Amino acid sequence: MVRDPFAEDDTPELQDILDALDDPDCRSIVRILEEPMTADEIANAADVPLSTTYRKLDLLTEASLLEEGTEIRPDGQHASRYTVAFEKVIIGIAESRDFEVDISRRPRTADERLANLWSEVQKET
Fold first, then answer.
1. What are phi and psi of 76, to 5 degrees?
2. What residues contact 9, with CB distance under 8 A and at least 6 apart?
């Protein structure tokens, strides 16, 4: 699913977030992502098989906990790079007794917003 890069409220479903946070491999991936990394780099650093890494990256991206960007390479072999997309995840219960989720995100620079837009365009083509 391609997310609207201009959407103000892109909070995913609570269950998607809980599924990602409950997964030990997903937590390992979030822990090691101090800077943007490719799936190969993540698999090596987190000591998770590459095929499993791809599934976990999809899970984390769908939960809006990671952002996928595109690294443009001169040889035309562009690569996806992943970054952590949150500072805090807060799960609470509202007065209506419904669960709520709030994802605090760091402000993105103009370059990061442009890179995100480019990634979304690449997914559509």
1. 85, -5
2. none
Report yes or no on 116 lying in a domain: yes
Task: Please indicate, yes or no, if residue 2 is contained in any of the structural domains.
Answer: no
Instruction: Name the token pair of 97.
Output: 């007794």
Total number of domains in the chain: 1
Question: Who's near 119: CB < 8 A, 6+ residues apart?
Answer: 67, 68, 69, 70, 80
In total, the chain counts a number of residues equal to: 125
pTM for the model stands at 0.72
- Written as one string, the DSSP assignment of 12-39 is --HHHHHHHHH-HHHHHHHHH-SS-B-H
Q: Is 65 in contact with 86 (CB distance < 8 Å)? A: yes
Dump pLDDT digits (tens) for 79-89. 889 999 999 98
Average pLDDT over residues 14-42: 95
